[in-house]
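hey so u asked for the seq, here:
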Amino acid sequence: MMTIEPVVSQIAKCYGVDAALIQAVVQAEGGGDAILKAVRCSIPNLVDREAAIRVTCRSALHALYDFYFKAGGGTQAQFVEYWAARWAPKGATNDPGSLNQNWPANVTALWIGK
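ran it, structure tokens below
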């Protein structure tokens, strides 16, 4: 079972998103400060890990809204696939090792255990 960090729980609560989802993303990105490096791919001047977690929560919130209200919704695993197209797109120039192809499965496994 994944342990949710207090900072992740607190920030996720502020944004109204599932802390387990955000923690799954943090873990899938490599845990620790790796989330900051991941978010810096899009926002290079981001200064700290908490800011990166906030960006992650905002991104999740926007993706959830679009998934349920624009794309018709679906399962949690389908949501992760949907979000992955934005967050960790396959073939992205900042992914020379093609690790993004594993992101949806990793996040899904961490979040809902599948």
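The chain has one domain: 6-112. The mean pLDDT is 94.
lmk if thats what u needed
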